[in-house]
Write a structure and sequence with these properties.
By secondary structure, this protein is α+β, with helices and mostly antiparallel strands. It has two domains: about 70 residues, Winged helix-like DNA-binding domain superfamily/Winged helix DNA-binding domain (Arc Repressor Mutant, subunit A), CATH 1.10.10.10; about 40 residues. The protein has six helices and two strands; from the N terminus they run αααββααα. The protein is elongated. The mean pLDDT is about 85.
């Protein structure tokens, strides 16, 4: 569950992009070894991960042994699209405002017929899930 005011710092967003693009859960050791950024040492990686866990964006899903120590395996608690939707929903405010945001997003789409078709499929799945 995304916590209140859980917008991401630049470093947190970069870290989440790593997790969102990974096919398997990762440990802090994996991330340090990737050498994504020279400034991301072990301590900073742990701080960013701790913050993302607190915000509800990462979840623990096991442990892995590295020599004599263990590291938590982590995975995203939600997809990037779910995070964006929750963030937009929180910023939009009420139900009416969320519908206006959805309308604004729809206006950005170039292929309206394809979008309508995809929306009809989504609506159908939502209706089947409600039954």
């Amino acid at each position: 569950m995304l916590t209140e005011g859980a917008s991401l710092t630049k470093s947190e967003e970069q870290m989440m992009d790593i997790f969102w693009s990974a096919s398997d859960p990762l440990t802090s050791v994996d991330i340090v070894n990737m050498k994504i950024r020279d400034t991301w040492g072990n301590g900073l990686v742990h701080n960013i991960i701790r913050s993302l866990l607190k915000k509800g964006l990462l979840e623990e899903c096991g442990i892995e042994r590295y020599k004599t120590q263990y590291a938590r395996k982590l995975r995203p608690a939600m997809t990037k699209e779910e995070y964006i939707a929750k963030l937009m929903s929180a910023k939009a405010g009420g139900k009416e405002s969320r519908f206006k945001v959805l309308l604004a997003l729809a206006k950005e789409e170039e292929n309206v017929e394809e979008m309508v078709s995809e929306l009809e499929e989504v609506i159908q799945k939502l209706q089947e899930g409600a039954e």
